[in-house]
Write a structure and sequence with these properties.
Layout: H1 7-19, H2 28-35, E1 42-51, H3 56-65, E2 69-75, E3 85-89, H4 96-104, E4 109-120, E5 123-124, H5 153-158, E6 168-173, E7 212-214, H6 229-239, E8 256-261, E9 267-268, H7 269-286, E10 290-295, E11 297-298, H8 304-315, E12 319-323, E13 351-357, E14 376-379, E15 383-389, E16 392-399, H9 401-418, H10 424-433, E17 436-437, E18 449-450
Parallel strand pairs: 6-8, 6-10, 7-8, 10-12, 12-13, 13-14
Antiparallel strand pairs: 1-3, 1-4, 2-3, 4-9, 4-11, 5-16, 15-16, 17-18
Bound molecules: calcium ion (4 copies).
Length: about 450
């Protein structure tokens, strides 16, 4: 299957559609193409069903008559959605493709699709503790002279161009350690929620969501131990406290980070949609200055429901910064112009798709690329950041487009700090326009270059 993504041309149309409050047409052809890829997995007993506006009652009757049970209402008319999105459970023995076919034939159903299984886009390597190795933070003034391909955040920081503590980002991932000494100060605390009183004080549908929410386990604990290492690692690159004599420095060292945990080992499209919408709702409900979400994950095929959620974030001026992906399981990088990687390959105008660069300036061997479907490269090999350990808190070096992505999310927060009131489109343009041309990325991404925050 071939998809030609021309994001710059699509941007205006998508933005217009969002402004008018319309949703994109479902694309069953893309879902069906994904279903032909045997490497993509989905939950065998579930289907996501998007109703048409005003058709709740009819659609509900149709589900009942097909023996399908609603397991969860992801978007409900009672909570203001113009059309409902349901996760339905299939009767024993019924195949997902069978149920999808029946549902698609029903006039009250806008689309039906699999609940894809998603995972992080990282591969850990052996941890060690040393300084001068935070190459992604530096650029041409790196203490290690051969490592000049970093984000230039250190140069920006030393020149006094720093984050100002007014910006928030969402981390859609595993959980984020909320007691790590290097990031604790930047873990968001919901000021509209009284902790542990058993009441949903801010009325967002989540009781006692103090640091965010855990959509994997449907509970308020966004940090559940050493299995939340990937999310914690991402958080350090974005927002570890700089100049505190401890560990590492994040790109935006006083950003506030909201945890929308939906992965633990793996996750699903269903949980990802809830996580994306949670952040969008927080921004609109409380007028929070949330500028981006970090999405260092992928897998699964095309999901119209997830793309719709990403577009809702875009309409709320939230960038969706996404890992370009690490090729397939044997580590072979993919040209995502030819074979899409979701969510980074969705055509939503608020997406920035990020490839991974090694400290030598070479594209990481595992990193996907795409002249039109990937936007920019950022440091993603040998990246030191925060992790939970068996005995508390520590640091580890990980590889992946997962690690490249938070450099760009941190950059978005830094730009928003230095240019208050910027729209998502302006922040995206600034990040892409300041990329440094890099030989290994020529013709392999929209900018042909790497992240550079020193010009912000
Ligand atoms: Ca709440
Ligand atoms: Ca409460
Ligand atoms: Ca939990
Ligand atoms: Ca630090």
């Amino acid at each position: 299957m071939k998809i030609k993504v021309r994001r710059s041309l699509l941007a205006a149309a998508t933005l217009l559609a969002s402004t008018l409050g319309t949703t994109a047409q479902a694309n069953p052809a893309l879902v069906d193409a994904s279903l032909k890829d045997a490497s993509l997995r989905y939950v065998e007993s579930e289907v996501l069903v998007q109703f048409k506006p005003g058709m709740q009652a009819v659609a509900q009757r149709a589900l009942n008559s097909m023996g399908l049970q609603t397991a969860k209402v992801l978007r409900s008319a009672a909570r203001g959605a113009d059309a409902e999105l349901h996760l339905v459970r299939l009767p024993a023995g019924q195949k997902v493709t069978e149920a999808m076919q029946k549902l698609r034939a029903n006039s009250a159903v806008k689309f039906a699709e699999p609940n894809w299984i998603l995972s992080t886009a990282a591969a850990p390597n052996d941890p060690y503790y040393t300084n001068g190795s935070l190459w992604g933070y530096y650029g041409d003034t790196s203490p290690v002279k051969t490592n000049q391909f970093g984000s230039q955040a250190g140069e920006s920081y030393n020149a006094g161009r720093k984050c100002n503590g007014t910006v928030l980002v969402g981390i859609i991932d595993e959980g984020v350690m909320n007691t790590h000494p290097d990031t604790q100060a930047n873990v968001w605390v919901n000021p509209f929620e009284i902790p542990n009183n058993g009441i949903d004080d801010d009325g967002n549908g989540y009781i006692d969501d103090v640091n965010g929410w855990d959509f994997k386990n449907n509970d308020k604990t966004t940090f559940d131990g050493t299995t939340d290492d990937h999310g914690t690692h991402v958080s350090g690159t974005i927002g570890a406290v700089a100049n505190n004599g401890v560990g590492i420095a994040g790109i935006c060292d006083n950003v506030k980070m909201i945890s929308a945990k939906f992965l633990e080992g793996s996750g699903t499209t269903e949980a990802a949609i809830l996580a994306v919408d949670y952040i969008t709702d927080l921004k609109t409900r409380h007028n929070l200055n949330i500028v981006a979400t970090n999405n260092s994950w992928g897998g699964g095929g095309f999901s119209q429901a997830l793309k719709d959620a990403i577009d809702r974030a875009g309409a709320a001026d939230i960038l969706f910064i996404a890992a370009a992906g690490n090729g397939n399981i044997i580590g072979k990088a993919i040209n995502t112009d030819k074979k899409p990687n979701y969510p980074s390959s969705y055509t939503s105008s608020n997406i920035i798709a990020v490839a991974a660069l090694a400290s030598s300036g070479k594209k990481a061997g595992f990193s996907n690329f795409g002249a039109t479907s990937v936007d920019i490269a950022a440091p993603g090999v040998g990246i030191w950041s925060t992790v939970p350990t068996a005995t508390g808190a520590g640091y580890a070096s990980y590889d992946g487009t997962s690690m490249a992505t938070p450099h760009v999310t941190g950059a978005a927060a830094l730009y928003a700090s230095l240019h208050p009131g910027s729209t998502a489109a302006q922040i995206k343009a600034a990040i892409l326009n300041s990329a440094v041309p890099t030989a290994s990325m020529a013709g392999k991404c929209v900018t042909g270059g790497r992240l550079n925050v020193s010009g912000f």
